[in-house]
């Protein structure tokens, strides 16, 4: 029964898209306790079983591997198949997968901060480019080695990288001794070395030379930002555009009401925003973009170039 519980536990956890740490946080236990459940080293108590059944949307009998009544068994199978089809149809737009080791601990510590860096990234992209970024799903994956990570777009691997947490990366430096590990920074391919930060750096944040080492979390965030900006046209959908237009409507109702949908379609706004971001042009003046599209009825390269130029002028004026 222990093996059956462990198998069903692992299947349900992964099926719900929960990392061991996230499930542990929901249960109020350690990630090590969750790992023991999944490997069959221990079984949860009765109260914990009830909590797991609630989170997974199943019965405690199913978790423990007891034979279910025919009606319950058919219902459970139907739900599992529906979940499988739903996951296949609705792949997460952005996923960060990490090896089940050091990087999981790094992300766990990061999540305890009120202003965690992944949230700050989404805020910064909203401020600098005027774009909404979907929630980034984080998962641990057993097929990845410790310190390896992947960034996926709709289930497709866009980039892969390898870090050396808890070391920091020193750009364009060479190894001083055997404790240093030569390597290449994954985002821009710059050579350097992995090294543990010194006491001086821990205290002051940088060396007397002015150089500042790059943390693993900072590299991960930089890679996420690069993937998002390079692929935002694929991430952008009608729901995101609707939300962005709604923000404009609240502030400038006359720009939107009677214009969007009636004279300027959401599809056209979506195409324009995608083209601007691809050209690294901020769209944080969406009100101005909507007005421009209302006045210029055709989507031509000349009109897009004119819009880019005018947005640059507006941005500099502001």
Highlighted features:
7 strands, flat
Give structural notes.
- The protein has 16 helices and seven strands.
- The chain has helices at residues 2-15, 20-27, 31-39, 46-56, 60-64, 70-89, 102-111, 117-129, 199-204, 216-230, 232-235, 238-251, 253-256, 266-278, 286-295, 301-317, and strands spanning 94-99, 137-141, 148-153, 156-162, 168-171, 181-184, 191-195.
- Strands 2-1-3-4 form a four-stranded mixed beta sheet, with helices on one face. Strands 5-7-6 form a three-stranded antiparallel beta sheet, with no helix packed on it.
- A hairpin with a 2-residue loop joins strand 3 (148-153) and strand 4 (156-162).
- Helix 2 (20-27) packs across helix 3 (31-39) and helix 8 (117-129) packs parallel to helix 10.
Low-confidence stretches: none
Whole-Å distance between the termini? 67 Å
- Average pLDDT, rounded to a whole number, is 85
Number of helices: 16
Residues in helices, as a percent range = 40-55%
Q: Which structural class do you get from the secondary structure elements? A: alpha+beta
Number of strands: 7
> What is the radius of gyration computed over CA atoms, rounded to a whole number of angstroms?
24 Å
Give a short account of the largest sheet: 4 strands, mixed
SSE string, helix = H, strand = E? Answer: HHHHHHEHHEEEEEEHHHHHHHH
The best one-word shape is flat
Strand order of the largest sheet: 2-1-3-4
Q: Which range does the strand content fall in?
A: 5-15%
